[in-house]
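During the first year of the project, the team set up a workflow for recording each protein of interest as an amino acid sequence followed immediately by a discrete structure-token representation. This format lets reviewers and collaborators read both layers of information side by side without switching files. As required by the reporting guidelines, we include two representative entries from the current panel. The first entry is reproduced here exactly as it appears in our internal archive.
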Amino acid sequence: MALVSKSREIPKGDCSVGVVVLVKKEKAEVRIDSAPCQGCKHSASCALWAVGDSTNTLWAHNKVGARVGDSVRVALSPGEKTKTACLLYLLPSICIVAGVLLGQPILGVALGVEPILGGAIGALIGFGFGLLPAIVVARRGGTLPVVVEVIKEG
């Protein structure tokens, strides 16, 4: 089988090679040939898009039109890694702290409980609000890796 010229500019992020096992609309489920942790300094990023219990299969935007059985290169740009980290870690952390700071005086007085309990309730509420943007972006597929090249047609 010949090399295929369907490719996009490969982002500077880490790349993995895999085989497309399912195509739905403009997304592809890709089975990574080796464990994501091998040879990848940002292996934790792959686990975020894992399908089911397997970290060897992930969803990716299929912008090059790969089909089931094609060998493909999947990448996640550094900008997407930063965006994902902010959505999953930074924003919820800030919201938790804000929830504690607002919950102690406001919820403690409003509910008539100890300020520490108001702070704990505020932290839980803040955590929930902090995760909402991540859930919305994830449902829209905003931070998925991208199939950047079809290496070999299947």
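The second entry, processed by the same pipeline in the following quarter, appears below.
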Amino acid sequence: MSNLPPPTPPRNPETHAQHRRQMFWQVFFPLGVGTVIMLGACVLPVVAVARGGEVSKWANTSLIWLILPAMFFSLIPLALLGGSAYGVLKLFEKMPGWMFRLQGIFDLVRLKVREYSDKAVEPVIQAQSFNAKIQAVMPTRKPK
């Protein structure tokens, strides 16, 4: 047997035609209108200056068209910066409650560590205490 995929079923001609119409009006038509507007905006200054129009006016217009994409793409980092600032603000609002809970957890850990460390060193302290009692009762010899 070959590893060919199963054949696709035939398309419904009515829905396919409807899809093509929708694709034209929702994708290609707005794309074409935008392209014509952009080409007109690019060609209009050249034609106006060639007919003896004011050069500085059209140079300023062309400069605006050159700056617009940079302004548009600078909105993305600006939105990220604004979102980050908003996130930090919300984080600062919630942090005191979180830190109070965390302080309680660390206080509980501190108490448990002290309890278990006291239990761990208790035999050593008892042995040293017993040794100190013996030393107190029995006089020590001084070397001659």
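For the second entry, the following points were noted during internal review. The helical segments are 13-50, 55-137. The chain has two helices and no strands. Both points are flagged for discussion at the upcoming steering committee meeting.
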